[in-house]
Design brief:
With 983 residues, the protein is α+β, with helices and mostly antiparallel strands. Helices cover 47% and strands 21% of the residues. A hairpin with a 4-residue loop joins strand 10 (216-221) and strand 11 (226-228). Residues 492-711 form the Histidine kinase domain.
Length: 983
């Protein structure tokens, strides 16, 4: 056994060493590639930085040469040359040399090649050369080169060593000469400007930038001569007489061949890793204005080898650490091999266990070959098939099943064989053992090459469970039918229940008002109060039960319509304000993030708000109730917080159950049916949201509603021509109802508040009254005698003259999806809240003509929102998308007020105001400038002088803008009346 272990250990160690060396070779290759890429990337960045710095310096010098050549001083000095001009020229060159710092000489040279003015700079000390020391440069190559140039061209020399009086200046001064010709105004060549740039400054910056590169970095000229590199003794040899030349072509001929073939790039070869860039191609010295001179920047780094990487210090340390690990791993593998024999024995035991499970399982298990013959079956399968397992071996299912069962099973087996997938079917089978419902899972049986060689099947007898499900399904259908019948009965009874309640509550309220006005017996007044309260309570119970039944029956359909959330919330608060005052509570609203206009079912959302606020008011005494609105992208969040009695965790678990309240004591103290919160939760869930509660006994509660909403996208369209003029409406209110008692109740409620009323008892009469009397608003019942209220609404909306008539539905029927489609202002279910009805009617009844407002804004969304809010405030609104369309509308019909955007296409707001002030019919029209832009102070002052009100979109909401517009219209109307009275 010991010798066996030793041999296993040696073999394992040899294999591991070979694998380790192979892995290290792969890793070294990867590291070499990564190192190459890193070096080339770093050198590429460094060469690009050096080249960019040199180009910037050359561009600066070239620009200075062009500027000097075009100065009046240069032209006059080269033409005249008097003392005064010389002083000006010397000051100009002195200032240029002092400002730049790296210009060693600046000169004006005349057409003959003689220096006229020269300034020298040494160690930032600038000196003007006296005239007697000026030299003749007519034989210098750069003078000949510049003398051949046209206006606007610039000469840039190669970088070489400065030569004075025929000798190289020591210490060496690398010099770059830049020159430009000077011409007179009539095109006569006068001379040239020549700038000697001290190359040491260029080379110093080159040395600093070159430190970022790997390997060696050189600066060479177009011919490959070394200008600056890591070996200073080889620099500038081409410029030193008698010195042996040194350059790229002599030291690195392979790299020089690559550089001559390309202007820039990177290459790898026997010379190493090469990175280079050429500032410009070598030329004749005649360089055009936008060219650079011939100069190359070269970086050369050694190419890493596998040997250098594998035998570096880090890898050697790795080898030293890996060897013990390899020894341990080899010992562990040897140990595993010894244990393998034990594992094989364990596998054999598991195989026997699986056989026992197969034989004794209560699941029917069978294995069949590709021809459908049973090759293995357990006892449970024998019980189902009606034969012992031994008798089933070699038989097909045809021998123990009916023809239909055999066909079904054969089809399912073939599906597994063809697809190789696991399938599960519920099967009705008929065997010799009886009729069964089986849940059968089939799986492919495969060989060592994963080829399908048979089918395995496991069947569970679910006959008794299927019979139970059938019984439960019948019971469920019966329960749903009973629930549907209940919902249908309650829905059909809504008219029969609400109609007498409408009369009871309405007549009781009239009697109560008369009794209070005539100071009747207090007992009579108190009795009438109780009758009205009982009727209202009964109406609430009926409405809640009907809502629950409709939701349970799935008969509630959501109707999405654009609605201003803040307006909806204010309406709910206004409705419940009297109840809050009666309990000594203060109602308030906080808008954390203005939700704006959203698409939502306004009727159902208002019902949820009324339920939550009503609960908060009922359970709070002398406290505060806060409604908080917030919108986060596409989610609307509403929170109702009170300072009432609060709830325990056990109570919070029951409050959303129908007909349940926190506990019995709550019901006795505060009353209620326990349906409000249940209805609210179901409505919120129908809207796709959720409702939650947080509470603490004695510290109040917070109910939070979260609903996904879609932003109201106003249709993008051209305002087009103005609609036909609407007939002017007076203060009449039309009540259309075929029930005489209902008409009398509505007339009484409205006339007590000084509102003149006319009536109609049929649909035809209602249409005739609208056309003849032109009411301000119509109260319409749906169930009329000759036609339905929907037919009346459709006829009105089809007539352009009466399409915008405000209509309030007062009916015993529930809200319908057609209310939004036909532009109904409000749907009030009888018996109506008389105070709410009067407040709603007064919004549309005015003593004077309806105000005409023009909204001008290129933002379709904002324009539609603002128009909707103004219409709700009782204004007639027209719209325009730009200033030009606005002026066309105003010339057709001057408005009472213009809400005008500042920044618009075609014609902005200030241009519109200017055009209005120049028009005799529009100069008096009031203007409110509504803008999101920052308006300069001088423009604000100008607008104030023109009596134009300025409103910022970012600072106020739509409701605030509408209120300011309404106040302005009322003030103008009052001033007009006062002027008429004085006249």
């Amino acid at each position: 056994m010991s010798a066996r272990r030793g041999g296993t250990l040696a073999a394992a160690l040899l294999v591991l060493v070979v694998v380790s060396l192979a892995v290290n070779l792969v890793i070294a290759g990867i590291e070499r590639g990564s190192l190459r890429r890193q070096v080339q990337a770093d050198n590429g960045h460094a060469i690009a930085l050096i080249a960019r710095t040199l180009r910037d310096d050359l561009a600066r010098v070239r620009g200075d040469a062009i500027i000097l050549s075009r100065t009046v001083v240069a032209e006059q000095m080269l033409q005249d040359g008097g003392p005064a001009l010389r002083q000006r020229a010397e000051r100009l060159l002195h200032a240029m040399a002092d400002a730049r710092g790296d210009y060693s000489q600046l000169r004006f040279i005349d057409a003959g090649g003689r220096e006229v003015v020269r300034v020298d700079s040494r160690a930032r000390v600038v000196e003007v050369v006296p005239p007697e020391q000026l030299q003749d440069k007519s034989q210098r190559p750069y003078v000949h080169a510049v003398a051949k140039m046209s206006a606007g061209q610039v000469y840039i020399s190669r970088i070489d060593l400065n030569i004075e009086h025929g000798q190289i200046v020591e210490p060496q001064e690398p010099t770059l000469r830049v020159g430009a010709p000077v011409f007179s105004g009539d095109g006569q060549r006068l001379g040239m400007v020549m700038i000697n740039v001290d190359g040491r400054h260029l080379l110093q910056r080159f040395v600093v930038d070159a430190q970022q590169a790997h390997g060696s970095v050189w600066l060479v000229d177009a011919a490959g001569n070394w200008l600056h590199g890591p070996d200073a003794s080889r620099d500038w040899r081409f410029a030193i007489p008698g010195a042996r030349r040194a350059g790229m072509d002599t030291d690195f001929p392979g790299a020089w061949a690559v550089m001559r073939a390309h202007k820039q790039g990177q290459s790898r070869g026997a010379f190493g890793l090469l990175t280079f860039d050429q500032l410009a191609a070598a030329g004749t010295g005649l360089v055009q204005p936008d060219s650079a001179f011939g100069l190359r920047v070269v970086a050369l780094a050694p190419d890493p080898t596998l040997a250098s990487i594998m035998f570096d210090r880090a890898h050697m340390v790795g080898y030293a650490l890996t060897l013990p690990a390899l020894l341990l791993l080899a010992a562990w593998l040897a140990h595993l091999r010894v244990r393998l024999s034990g594992v094989e024995a364990e596998v054999a035991a598991n195989s026997r266990l699986l056989k026992d499970i197969f034989d004794h399982s209560r699941l029917s298990m069978k294995v069949k070959d590709l021809q459908g013959r049973i090759v293995r079956a357990n006892d449970a399968a024998g019980e189902l098939l009606g034969r012992s397992p031994d008798q089933l071996i070699g038989q097909t299912i045809d021998a123990v099943a009916t023809e239909a069962t055999a066909a079904t099973i054969g089809q399912h087996d073939r599906e597994v064989i063809d697809s190789g997938e696991v399938t599960t079917y519920e099967e009705q089978v008929e065997y010799l053992g009886g009729n069964f419902t089986l849940l059968t899972t089939r799986f492919p049986v495969t060989d060592e090459h994963d080829r399908v060689v048979g089918v395995g099947a496991m069947s569970l007898d679910i006959t008794s469970r299927i019979r139970m499900e059938q019984w439960l399904r019948v019971a469920k259908d019966q329960a749903e039918a009973a629930n549907t019948a209940k919902a249908a009965f309650l829905a059909n009874m809504s008219h029969e229940l609400r109609t007498p309640l409408n009369s009871i509550i309405g007549i009781s309220e009239l009697l109560l008002e008369q009794a209070e006005e005539e100071d009747d017996d207090p007992l009579t007044v108190e009795s009438l109060h109780r009758v009205v309260g009982a009727g209202r309570h009964l109406l609430t119970l009926i409405n809640d039960i009907l809502d629950i039944s409709r939701i349970d029956a799935g008969r509630v359909e959501l109707v999405l319509e654009p609605i201003l959330v803040s307006t909806l919330a204010e309406s709910a608060l206004s409705t419940l304000q009297p109840l809050a005052v009666a309990n000594g509570n203060r109602l308030s609203m906080v808008v954390a993030a203005d939700p704006g206009v959203v698409a939502i079912d306004a009727v159902r959302m208002r019902q949820v708000l009324i339920n939550l606020l009503g609960n908060a008011i009922k359970f709070t005494r002398d406290g505060e109730i806060t409604l908080r609105l917030e919108r986060d992208v596409d989610t609307l969040r509403i929170a109702v917080t009170d300072t009432g009695i609060g709830m325990t965790p056990e109570q919070m678990e029951r409050i959303f159950t129908p007909f349940e309240q926190a506990d019995r004591s709550i019901t006795r103290r505060f009353g209620g049916s326990g349906l409000g919160l249940a209805i609210s939760r179901q409505l919120v869930q129908l809207m796709g949201g959720w409702i939650a509660v947080e509470s603490e006994p004695g510290r109040g509660s917070t109910f939070t509603v979260s609903i996904p909403v879609g932003a109201f996208e106003a249709p993008s369209r051209d305002p087009g021509p103005a609609a036909p003029d609407e007939p002017s409406r007076d203060s009449l209110v039309l009540v259309a109802d075929d029930d005489e008692d209902a008409r009398r109740l509505l007339i009484g409620a409205l006339e007590r508040h000084g509102l003149p009323v006319i009536t109609a008892c049929s649909g035809a009469e209602a249409l005739q009254q609208v056309r003849s009397q032109r009411p301000a608003v119509m109260l319409l019942d749906i169930l009329l005698g000759d036609m339905s209220g929907w037919d009346v609404l459709a006829a009105l909306r089809a007539d352009p003259l009466y399409a915008n008539l405000p209509v309030i539905l007062c009916t015993v029927t529930d809200p319908d999806h057609r209310t939004a489609a036909l532009g109904v202002v409000e749907h009030m279910t009888k018996p109506v809240d008389r105070d709410q009805l009067v407040r709603l009617v007064k919004r549309f009844v005015r003593s004077g003509p309806q105000s005409n407002v023009l909204v001008v804004d290129d933002d379709d969304h904002y324009r539609e929102q603002l128009a909707m809010v103004l219409r709700r405030a009782g204004c007639r609104v027209r719209m325009a998308a730009n200033g030009q369309q606005a002026l066309m509308h105003m010339e057709q019909e001057p408005p009472d007020l213009v809400l005008l955007d500042l920044v618009m296409p075609v014609m902005d707001g200030l241009e519109v105001i200017g055009a209005m002030q120049g028009h005799p019919l529009l100069a008096h029209v009031q203007v409110v400038l509504v803008t999101a832009a920052d308006v300069p102070q001088h423009t604000v002052q100008k607008l104030n002088e023109s009596a134009v009100m300025l409103v910022s979109k970012a600072e106020v909401g739509l409701d605030c803008i509408a209120r300011r517009a309404r106040d302005l219209l009322d003030r103008v109307e009052s001033e007009t009346r006062d002027a008429g009275t004085r006249g």
